[in-house]
Amino acid sequence: MLALGRLLLGGLYVAGGIHHFFVIVPLTEAIEARGVPFAKWVLILGSLFQIVAGILLMLGLFVAAAAFGLIVFTLAATTMLLNFWDMQGTARDSAINTWKTNMAIIGGLLIAAAGAM
Questions:
Q1: Residue 8 to residues 22, 31, 71, 93: CA-CA distances in angstroms?
Q2: How far apart are alpha carbons 4 and 93 in whole angstroms?
Q3: pLDDT at 60
Q4: Which of 10, 42, 77, 86 has its CA 20 to 30 A from that of 32?
Q5: pTM for the structure as a whole
Q6: How many CB atoms lie within 10 A of CB 117?
Q7: Where are the domains of the chain?
Q8: What is the per-residue pLDDT for 92?
């Protein structure tokens, strides 16, 4: 079960990281809108990190380090892009739901890290 969980969690990050390279322009604009300097580089490096850490998690290599790295990544990306406190209506509701989903994913990453320790 732990291996399947790592495969699913890692696969989520690998797929997401790869997808970012197909939507660089809108994601860069969204990151720039949050005032992040060097937004394109932040996006590219973050996406590469996502892919590498996801693969490590999937392969069961350096699981705790990969999981903790992905937790930090997820918290940073969530805070940077899902600022529901500045939103209203359905956009706010959607951002809050995505926050909840990301917190559940972080819970899975914590379980994966604990299983490797």
A1: 22, 27, 15, 26
A2: 31
A3: 95
A4: 10
A5: 0.89
A6: 7
A7: 2-116
A8: 85
